[in-house]
Structures are given as C-alpha cells and as structure tokens.
Automatic annotation (TrEMBL):
Any Pfam family: MMR_HSR1
Family: Belongs to the TRAFAC class TrmE-Era-EngA-EngB-Septin-like GTPase superfamily. EngB GTPase family.
Gene Ontology BP annotations: division septum assembly
InterPro entries xref list: G_ENGB_dom, GTP-bd, GTP-bd_ribosome_bio_YsxC, P-loop_NTPase
Segment forming the signal sequence: none
Gene behind the chain: engB
Native species: Shewanella insulae
Name under which the protein is recorded: Probable GTP-binding protein EngB
Boundaries of every EngB-type G domain copy: 31-205
Length: 218
C-alpha cells in the first residue's frame, strides 16, 4: 500500500471560505476524505492544528476569542483534507449571528458526504457545553466518528486530568464506540500520538483504501 500512514506535517493551506452561510460555494468538491475541527472559540483549536501538523503558523492562534471566522481548508494529500471550522459560542457575537453559524455548521455536518471524522475540541476545564453536545449529537446522528479532545490538559494535575477524562467518557458512553475521548496538550504534545493514530484511521476508510488499491493495479 502506498500511503498507509498519513504525514500530517505535509498539511498545506488550500482555501478559505469567507462565510459559513455559503460554504458549499467555496469548499473544494465533496470528494475524498475530510476531517473537521470544531470547538468553542479559545478552546485551543488553532494551537492543536499547529501542534498536530508541526507547523507554527498553519492555523493562526489568537488571544482574542472569535477572531477566526473563516473556514480554512488544508490539504494533506490529493485525497484528504483538514477543515478548521469557525469557533462557536463566544459572548460578543449577536444572537442572530450565532444562530446563523449554528445552522450552517449543522448543515455542513449533515450534508458534507466526504466528512469522515469530527474533532470537537474542549478546554479540559470546561468540557461538554451545550454547543459541544450539539456538534457531537449531529455527528453521531450522521454516523460520523467523533474525537472529543480535552485540550490544555497541562493545566490540570494528572489525577484531576484523568478524573475529567473519565467523567467525559461516562457522559458520552451512550453514543457508543463512534465517540472517543482523549486528553491533549498543544503546549506539551501530550496525547499527540493517540490523536494522530485516530486521525490516521479516519483517513483510511475502506472505500478509499479499496479505490486506491484498484487504481494501483490498473
Ligand atoms: N496551557 C496551554 N494553553 C493552550 C493550549 N492550547 C492553547 N492554549 C492557549 O489558549 C488560547 C487559545 O488558543 P487558540 O489555539 O488560539 O484557540 P482557538 O480559538 O480554539 O483557535 C491561547 O492563548 C493559547 O496559547 C495548551 O495545550 N496548553
Ligand atoms: Mg483559532
């Protein structure tokens, strides 16, 4: 097999969609595999993308919550992409705008056929807020596997960290095997091998592995 292990360091900026309301007009064709990253603003999404790809500035990190409203798409290779969805749930945005975003996020999750996995990033000190649950429920309803990533785990001592991880696992247990929960620190690299291994699996759905094997034989 030519690409059994995806090298996430190869991620390259592909395109930005300026407005989530017209996502379908801006995104690349709905083919191959897409893995989306979602989370409340300030959850540590940009930092996680930078750590996972070992690129300092792939996704810009910001101390001002809610600055990244663009949807950024990064190509891993010709068949696979990472999508940085806009952060949700920050206070300064008018309600009507929040509703519009929520609707568009839901639509993306429900309609994007190539979406093969959703990473929901949550600050380990504030997990499972309403919109996080909403994202997870939408994904599960669409049979999309979820990784609930508990970020900034360096902020908690090991015992408190494992306590939260276990509580979140318990809270999400009813969703079944399709929802995984892992601690993560972009600062320290904690949890990185585990996350990369899960993302790597998502990058290799049976249909794509078979299609690539067929193409190789021709
Ligand atoms: N201690 C610690 N801080 C983090 C970590 N990840 C992100 N941060 C900080 O949290 C803030 C928000 O991070 P950012 O990646 O911009 O979050 P985003 O809004 O979800 O993209 C920044 O000040 C980061 O430096 C982490 O793993 N550990
Ligand atoms: Mg960000």
């Amino acid at each position: 097999m030519t690409d059994s292990r995806i090298d996430f360091r190869q991620a390259k900026f592909l395109i930005s969609a300026p407005d989530i309301a017209h996502l379908d007009e801006h995104l690349p064709g709905d083919v191959g595999v897409e893995i989306a990253f979602a989370g409340r603003s300030n959850a540590g999404k940009s930092s996680a993308l930078n750590q996972l790809t070992e690129q300092k500035n792939l996704a810009r990190t910001s101390k001002t919550p809610g600055r990244t409203q663009l949807i950024n798409v990064f190509a891993l290779d010709e068949h696979r992409r990472l999508v940085d969805l806009p952060g949700y749930g920050f206070a300064q945005v008018p309600l009507a705008m929040k509703k519009k975003w929520q609707q568009a996020l839901g639509q993306y999750l429900q309609e994007r056929d190539c979406l093969s996995g959703l990473v929901v990033l949550m600050d380990i000190r504030h997990p499972l807020k309403d919109l996080d649950m909403q994202m997870i429920e939408w994904a599960v309803a669409c049979d999309i596997p979820v990784l609930a990533l508990l970020t900034k785990c360096d902020k908690l001592a090991q015992s408190a960290r494992m306590k939260t991880v276990n509580e979140v696992r318990k809270a999400l247990a009813d969703f079944g095997d399709g929802v995984k929960v892992e601690p993560f620190s972009s600062l320290k690299g904690t949890g990185k091998p585990k996350v990369l291994s899960i993302l790597n699996q998502w990058c290799h759905p049976d249909w794509l592995v078979e299609a690539l094997a067929d193409a190789e034989q021709e």
